[in-house]
């Protein structure tokens, strides 16, 4: 194995988990996330010899992943069937360690009710901490589209989950 292939193998070993987390947040499904990461890694491998610096590989893979997800949005839609609503039992004590797990499940469920575009802007803006302009560029949409989709997504999440403090904070202007 030559040095470039060894660099690629090292990249895959060290960064796949981070890419998978982002892909899961974009898709809302573990299997779709794995497919998205696999596609991004395959395209990154094909472009590996063209990358100027190995340090750019993750940015390239993420951009490929976002573009692949956008192309999925453009495909004909098939109706999704979500399981019945899950309401956590709030009678438990505040120190119950299961509460955090329940909140994550409720948040995940709420994120799945968002459209794919809304989920993508929430992931890019708040999970990966990109600016509106960066998110717009990555998704191939205008900044105003990112702002609109972010606002609608946050409004929806706030209405569905009024007791989660992190969703009621107002994002910084221009971020």
Structural write-up:
It is a single chain. The protein is mostly helical and 175 residues long. The chain has helices at residues 3-27, 30-47, 57-73, 98-113, 116-127, 132-139, 143-160. The longest helix is centred in the first third of the chain and has 25 residues, at 3-27. It is globular, with a radius of gyration of 18 Å. This is SigE family RNA polymerase sigma factor. Residues 17-75 form the RNA polymerase sigma-70 region domain. Keywords: DNA-binding, Sigma factor, Transcription, Transcription regulation. Residues 106-157 form the RNA polymerase sigma factor 70 region 4 type domain. Belongs to the sigma-70 factor family. ECF subfamily.
Features:
single chain, 175 residues, mainly alpha
Would you summarize the structure shown here?
The chain is mainly α and 175 residues long. It is 65% helix and 0% strand.
Task: Compile the SSE list and pairings.
Elements: H1 3-27, H2 30-47, H3 57-73, H4 98-113, H5 116-127, H6 132-139, H7 143-160
Helix pairs in contact: 1-2, 1-3, 1-5, 2-3, 5-6, 5-7, 6-7
